[in-house]
Amino acid sequence: MKSYEKLLLQNKAWANEKVTDDPEFFSRLASIQTPEFLWIGCSDSRVPANEITGTQPGEIFVHRNIANLVVHTDLNLLTVLDYAVTHLKVKHIIVCGHYGCGGVKAAMTHHSLGIIDKWLRNIKDVHRLHRERMDAMKDPEAQADLLVELSVKEQVMNLAKTAIVQKAWKHKHRPQLHGWVYSLKDGLIKNVIEMEAGTRIDSLYEYDDL
Ligand code: CO
To answer: Cα of 45 to ligand 1 centre, how many Å?
Structure first.
């Protein structure tokens, strides 16, 4: 059997199991999608949103990219964000990074990897913002772990800087923003930042006419 054929077989078994457990499972999900959460995670195959949070299809709206970045010119991310906030009316946005992130590690090197350099530049910028704290860490692994956490915090702040989030904060008092870091070693998630709707951010980024 070819590797991908196994996936199709497993799909049949999974669909079967779902219907056995809950005959209405698919008919219920087919008609409406009302997730409470938007997940912005890393593309890394070891960090699947539903699996590590014990959630089911229909519960989390998901966007993933390399190193879970929130880049204000990324049309893909902004489209997902606007749809989730404005139309799905999610209550929470979770940016979830993970220790041992290859994207973060690559951003700490001086190797040129091609087009990905431009993407990882965003992580180098976070590194520069926290240069002293980073330099004070001597152990390279601890340094990478710190950068993972600092980057997640920065991405949460990037969300708060968007007009999409600020508008929802002003008129709907949602969503709450969360920055999490998942550990590949024990499967546990650490909460590194939380921002309530309406949190004041640097006034340079505040829009007063939304
Ligand atoms: Co990663």
So the answer is: 9
